[in-house]
């Protein structure tokens, strides 16, 4: 075989190898582009799902905030006394949902009290926008535990036993009150959503810490 033929064969093999390498590079580019497109589509789809979910949850909360709480009692918030007093107060409803009260509020930053607390301090907490969960011995231990878990993770709420009330479990806010059947009653979440720092609050945003701790 002549040196010329060997040189031609070598160039042919080199050209063949070059074309094969170019083909591999094209396949790799196509594969990279394809994977990137799939990833982008997945991210876009996931982002859309998250946004839709957040939008749906927001709409549900807004709807719950507008809907009346079944069985709730309402008092005119403007007619409830708001004077600071150092003397005992006789409230017309039990637990009270407003009226004259002690200058010191009950801590209500997710505070769970295992003993009864002074009404005059708890009412001051309601003035600050808190929801007060109360219960009697008729409430099961499991129900009390579930309610305590909810209160503990919810700023502007407090919970305590209250022997002298009609319902086993009651929720109170300034001018609002409802008796519920259990901790799983959907009105519990609805009441929190609607009235915790709700529009009925005389002093929204006022402190729920730095008050009376009950200890």
Structural account:
This protein has a six-stranded mixed sheet. The protein has helices spanning 3-66, 119-127, 141-152, 186-195, and strands at 73-74, 109-112, 131-135, 157-161, 169-173, 176-180. The chain folds into two domains: 1-66; 73-195, Glutaredoxin, CATH 3.40.30. Helix 1 packs across helix 4. With 215 residues, it is α/β, with parallel strands linked by helices. The N and C termini lie far apart (105 Å). It is built from four helices and six strands; from the N terminus they run αββαβαβββα.
The ordered H/E elements are: HEEHEHEEEH
CATH class of the largest domain: Alpha Beta
- How would you state the average pLDDT, rounded? 89
Distance between the termini: 105 Å
Radius of gyration, in Å, reads 33 Å
Here the CATH topology of the largest domain equals Glutaredoxin
Number of domains: 2
- Overall 3D form: rod-shaped
Strand line-up across the major sheet: 1-6-5-3-4-2
Instruction: Assign the structural class, choosing from mainly alpha, mainly beta, alpha/beta, alpha+beta, or little secondary structure.
Output: alpha/beta
Just name the CATH architecture of the largest domain: 3-Layer(aba) Sandwich
Helicity level = 40-55%
């Amino acid at each position: 075989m002549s040196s010329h033929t060997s040189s031609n064969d070598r160039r042919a093999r080199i050209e063949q190898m070059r074309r094969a390498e170019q083909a591999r590079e094209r396949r790799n580019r196509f594969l990279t582009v394809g994977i990137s497109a799939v990833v982008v589509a997945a991210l876009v789809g996931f982002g859309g799902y998250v946004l839709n979910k957040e939008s749906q949850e927001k709409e549900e909360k807004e709807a719950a905030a507008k809907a009346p709480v079944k069985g709730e009692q309402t008092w005119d918030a403007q007619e409830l006394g708001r004077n600071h007093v150092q003397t005992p107060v006789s409230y017309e409803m039990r637990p009270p949902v407003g009226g004259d009260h002690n200058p010191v509020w009950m801590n209500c930053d997710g505070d769970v009290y295992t003993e009864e607390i002074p009404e005059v301090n708890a009412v001051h907490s309601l003035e600050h926008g808190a929801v007060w969960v109360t219960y009697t011995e008729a409430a099961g231990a499991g129900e009390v535990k579930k309610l305590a878990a909810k209160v503990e993770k919810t700023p502007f709420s407090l919970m305590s036993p209250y022997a002298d009330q009609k319902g086993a479990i009651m929720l109170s806010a300034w001018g609002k009150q409802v008796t519920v059947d259990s901790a799983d009653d959907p009105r519990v979440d609805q009441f929190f959503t609607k009235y915790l720092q709700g529009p009925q609050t005389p002093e929204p945003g006022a402190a729920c810490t730095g008050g009376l701790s009950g200890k």
